[in-house]
């Protein structure tokens, strides 16, 4: 498979992942699927916008660039034949780096949020939202989840959505890392599967 085709496949994969990350982050603004009474009731890590900023906004640009490489890396980029396919592939490495930063940011925020646990009302918090768990101790002991009295199902909600962000962020990191390697190969070799007559 030529470098342009491979990059296009990566771009096609990254777009739905970015949309899913956006949706997961938005859903986290509704603890347990309910509207929060005030912003202080929402887990702090949600406000870091890992899924919206990191895995979505910073991922859309690399994805679009990867999608366009099939056309750009053969006979020039952006309609300019003098630009060259090797420059287009080199350009993709920079955007893959941006994607790596965004996905890495989302991964780290999600890991911290999972380890810290959700913000919820407990029997001893007098109706205020607190963090009842420490250092991920609730992950291996689901009987502790009963400490969260409200919102209903907040631990499952928190853990499921942040785990999805964590996994999708990891997948995005891997895909962008593949494009860095693909971009280096395309920059050095200029492999274009015979485009423009000579494939060089």
From TrEMBL:
Keywords of the record: Membrane, Transmembrane, Transmembrane helix
The keyword Transmembrane belongs to this UniProt entry's keyword annotation: yes
Highest taxon above the source species: Eukaryota
Principal subcellular localisation of the protein: membrane
InterPro entries: L6_membrane (IPR008661)
Membrane-spanning residues: 12-31, 46-67, 87-108, 154-178
Pfam family, one: L6_membrane
GO biological process terms on file: negative regulation of pancreatic A cell differentiation; negative regulation of type B pancreatic cell development; pancreatic epsilon cell differentiation
PANTHER family to which the protein is assigned, alphabetical: TRANSMEMBRANE 4 L6 FAMILY MEMBER 1-RELATED, TRANSMEMBRANE 4 L6 FAMILY MEMBER 4
Family per similarity comment: Belongs to the L6 tetraspanin family.
Name of the protein: Transmembrane 4 L six family member 4
Organism: Astyanax mexicanus (Blind cave fish)
């Amino acid at each position: 498979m030529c470098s342009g085709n491979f990059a296009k496949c990566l771009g096609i994969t990254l777009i739905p992942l970015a949309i899913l990350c956006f949706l997961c982050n938005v859903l986290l603004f509704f603890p347990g699927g309910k509207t929060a009474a005030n912003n202080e009731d929402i887990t702090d890590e949600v406000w870091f916008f890992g899924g919206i900023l990191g895995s979505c906004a910073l991922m859309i640009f690399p994805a679009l660039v990867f999608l366009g490489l099939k056309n750009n890396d053969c006979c020039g980029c952006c309609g300019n034949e003098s630009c060259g396919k090797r420059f287009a592939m080199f350009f993709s490495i920079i955007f893959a780096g941006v994607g790596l930063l965004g996905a890495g940011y989302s991964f780290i925020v999600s890991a911290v949020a999972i380890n810290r646990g959700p913000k919820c009302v407990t029997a001893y918090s007098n109706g205020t939202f607190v963090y009842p768990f420490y250092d991920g101790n609730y992950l291996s002991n689901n009987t502790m989840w009963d400490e969260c009295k409200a919102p209903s199902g907040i631990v499952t909600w928190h853990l499921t959505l942040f785990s999805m962000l964590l996994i999708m962020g990891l997948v995005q990191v891997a895909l962008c890392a593949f494009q860095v390697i693909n971009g280096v190969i395309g920059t050095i070799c200029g492999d274009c599967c015979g485009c423009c007559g000579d494939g060089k």
